[in-house]
Structure formats: C-alpha cells, structure tokens
Amino acid sequence: MKAKRISANAAMLLTGVLIVTACGNQPSKKIQLAIEQTGENTVKYPIPTAYEVMNLINRSGAAYIIEITNPTGKVESYLTESNKALNLGIYSADLAYVTTYNMKQETMDYLKAIKKLSDELHVSANFNADLAYEVERNIENKDTLVSIITRSFDETYSFLENNGKDNISVQVLTGMWVEGLYVAAYVATTSSNPGDLLQVVANQKQSLETLKGIIEKNSDAPEIAALLTLLAPIISEYSGVDKTIDMPKAQQIHSVVEEVRNKIIGE
Length: 267
Description:
By secondary structure, the protein is mostly helical. The chain has helices spanning about 50-60, 80-100, 105-120, 130-135, 140-160, 165-190, 195-215, 220-240, 245-265, and strands spanning about 5, 35-40, 40-45, 65.
C-alpha cells in the first residue's frame, strides 16, 4: 500500500526502544563490541538509536508519512524466535517514528505490539504494566519521556545480556537498524528538499559497519550468522559510499533496504 503524507506537528523526544523492564548490571563479554560502559549502570550504544535517526528526519522538516511503518496488526504472524526478535526491533524503530511526530494512538499501539513480542520471547522479566500509562500521561513532556524510555532501553539490554539472550539482543538491534534506514531512505527519496536527508542516509554506513562487527562477534550461532546473509545486499550497496551520496545512490539504497526489510516483516 502506498504511503500517504500529512503535515508534521511535533518536536518531542523519544528513543525507539524495547519497552520492557528488567534487571542487570554488567554486560556480557560477547556484547562488549556493541556497548561501552560510561559509568555505574549507564550504557552507551555505539550506533545511533532509532530515535536519533527519526529525530533527524523530523528536524529536516519532512512530513509524517502514514503507513510507512510495519502495521501492528501483523504482530500475530511472527511465529519463530528470530522473526519475533527482528520485528521487535522493527516495531521499536516504528515506535520512535510515530512518537517523534506525536502520533498518540499509534504510540500506544506500538507499545502493545512490543509488549506482546517481548513477552513471547521471555525477555521481559517484569513488564511494567504502568509504563504504557506513564508514556501516555507524559506524551507532551519530552524530558520525562526521555527518562522513562532511556531507562527501559538500558534495562532491557542489561536483561538480555545477563540472562543468556545475547542472540536475541543482536537480532533486535538489527531489526531496529534496518527499519531506521528504511524510513530515512524512503523519506529522502520522496522529499522535495532531500539535502539533509541524503546525509542521514549516507551516515548510516558507519553504523552499518559497527552492526556488522557486532553480528560477526556473535556469528557462532546460526541465526546470527544468517543476519550477515540478510544484510549482504545493503553492505554491498554501501561499499562504494564515502561521506556523501546523491539521489540515484539513495534510490538504490532504498530499493535494497526495502527488499531486506520486506523479508523481515513478511511482505
């Protein structure tokens, strides 16, 4: 279905994350490539969060695009662990997109989809039933939202790393990155003023290289090794990218990432 554009009306902050509460302190050794300890109970991730990418899109002045995200109604169709983990990442990026543009009902819908998948993956040791309420109650309070969601982001990854779920963590991260690039590339290639957006797409080369390293670090697991095959067309497309790209290159990247993304979401 072709996406529809409407005017943007938002400037609030929200990172695209897994909405799960859990516990944990130090990251596992396998995930060390993926994170950097910056202080007690503080984790900094080396690739941009989905929120950071979506916020750049919003700040460029790009209009919100209806139906660009993966419909929450498809959540029931993800049956295998890998499909659930990858689409948990997809939905986390979609959450970032809809909340960045202050789409309140969509925000709550994606929270519900994320909760369902995280429950089925057993990655939420203690899902906070009040979290969705807190997000809705503070939907206009950007500082509080940043605090709520950032805490959930850190706690989720701590849980995954400390409970033998590193592979799920890597798959979620992959899904989130793919969806962030898909949205950025789509918006860039349909914008009447794509300058800043083209740069956003070009800049994903660095985060792709980091993601590739994370996957390779964990590729002893077949489901993680399969991610290298999944991402191979995107890796190839970025091989010739230096610091900037033109519209034809952005269109090629969009075409390739759309194919990869469709494999994940089941199109």
